[in-house]
Amino acid sequence: MSATELTHLSAAELSAKLTAGEVSAAEVTEAHLKRIADVEPHVHAFLYVNEQAAAVAADIDARRAAGEELGPLAGVPLAIKDVLVTTDMPSTSGSKILEGWMSPYDATVVSRSRAAGLVPLGKTNMDEFAMGSSTEHSAYGPTHNPWALDRIPGGSGGGSAAAVAAFEAPFALGSDTGGSIRQPAHVTGTVGVKPTYGAVSRYGAIALASSLDQVGPCSRSVLDAGLLQDVIGGHDHHDSTSLKDAWPSMAAAAREGATGEVLKGLRVGVVKQLQGDGIQAGVAQRFSESLALLQAQGAEIVEIDAPHFEYAVAAYYLILPAEASSNLAKFDSVRFGLRVTPEGGGTVEQVMAATREAGFGPEVKRRIILGTYALSAGYYDAYYGSAQKVRTLIQRDFASAFAQVDVIASPSAPTTAFKLGEKVDDPMAMYLNDITTIPANLAGIPGISVPNGLAPEDGLPVGIQFMAPACEDARLYRVGAALEALVEAEWGGPLWAKSPLLTAAGLSDTSLTAGRA
Ligand code: GLN
């Protein structure tokens, strides 16, 4: 099998080959590092490529050869969003204020990945401190969508999604506060999961908005996302919001779901407020087609009214900046990263101000100002207080919906990938991308985005989102895998095989489908 073919295999397929001894971790890692070297000048999914990756892979091979009992994923490569701290690679969260900063400890999801034998390939690009929907707010330049290099890869986790879509890694870690795993999945034709709040540890995830942040997987298949969630999920005493529940295997749920059995009698809710206005025609069309596919397999479609969803974006863009302004106060020039001293010296306050002025980008400053204002005496009740009340009403809308249905479906985002530069100067237009993903974060429930074909008007990927009640993550993997199988049957194979990947950049790749059995 050629190096190129190896990069087209899923994590599940790589795991089977590695455990059967058909391929070594060193070969798999080398193939992905070569792919990274070839496509990075065009895609820029990575902020840092792990210089130790080959050594880590060689160590896995040596341990396997010595008869050590390794996990099934040992030797499979992994990309890591730069919001997650790592001891052996810099962690910047996409910001200049953390340039070159090295963490003294690993995020729990990183240490669990290492313990499972996954090989960290590097740290992926993101909007600064995970604020954005296009990765254009990264202090290190944007990532390009592998389906069309002049378009955004989504955000804030555009680097992780693009790395997976460009075959630089079979799967990646992301974080989702308002859609940062699911919306990039939608625009890059990949799978993205935001687990239940508390299902995956956030220890070592640089905090954006602590009541919303959740770490999760992205991949090219629902099964691979499940394999990764099984590695990173479960209780962690380092994170006080981590749930103590015992979780079923998400990979097993995905395998079970692929048979389609789960669809018989499944009640699928379609929220009136997540339809219509602002949804691109082709995105809406693919969504209705998939509802018809689900119905043909025995699912029942139920119209749901969620009257408070229309205030979700407004409430989120008060709660998030409020929490972010408080979380980012720790970047004070004393404890982490950058320190800028005004000419001729200055007081502590002047050094802090100069550092934050130089270290934070415009979107981060905008949100700190908004958040500080929303929390200030005299305005607290009117803004932050009201937003929290709306949040409760949205949670009640979900509760009454889930009394009638098993899952809720919606388009994962309103449009296909827009052009780089198109919305970067228009915060409102940027914020409206999150309209379909934000409700799940406000309610703490899980959501998955599954590739749902290409939009007829521009040939770009679209996703379908499913949401389930809190702690029903396995249900999402079942339903997601069932839909994935239906969409693949409809499109004659996995969507990623249709990627015109990088031909425009002169990196034509004719063997894209070769690795898939
Ligand atoms: N687009 C959202 C925002 O800008 C998503 C953030 C996230 O999930 N990290 O806030």
UniProtKB/TrEMBL annotation:
Molecular function, one GO term: transferase activity
Protein's job: Allows the formation of correctly charged Gln-tRNA(Gln) through the transamidation of misacylated Glu-tRNA(Gln) in organisms which lack glutaminyl-tRNA synthetase. The reaction takes place in the presence of glutamine and ATP through an activated gamma-phospho-Glu-tRNA(Gln).
Family from the record: Belongs to the amidase family. GatA subfamily.
Coiled-coil region(s): none
Keyword line: ATP-binding, Ligase, Nucleotide-binding, Protein biosynthesis, Transferase
Active site: 81 (charge relay system), 156 (charge relay system), 180 (acyl-ester intermediate)
Domain Amidase, residue spans: 27-476
Subunit structure, as described in the record: Heterotrimer of A, B and C subunits.
EC number: 6.3.5.7
The UniProt record lists the keyword Ligase: yes
GO biological process: translation
Keyword Lipid metabolism: no
Pfam families: Amidase (PF01425)
The protein's name: Glutamyl-tRNA(Gln) amidotransferase subunit A
NCBIfam families noted in UniProt: gatA
Annotated signal peptide: none
Catalytic activity reported: L-glutamyl-tRNA(Gln) + L-glutamine + ATP + H2O = L-glutaminyl-tRNA(Gln) + L-glutamate + ADP + phosphate + H(+)
InterPro entries to which the protein is assigned, alphabetical: Amidase, Amidase_CS, Amidase_dom, AS_sf, GatA
Matching SUPFAM superfamilies: Amidase signature (AS) enzymes
Gene responsible for this protein: gatA
Entry's Gene Ontology cellular component terms: glutamyl-tRNA(Gln) amidotransferase complex
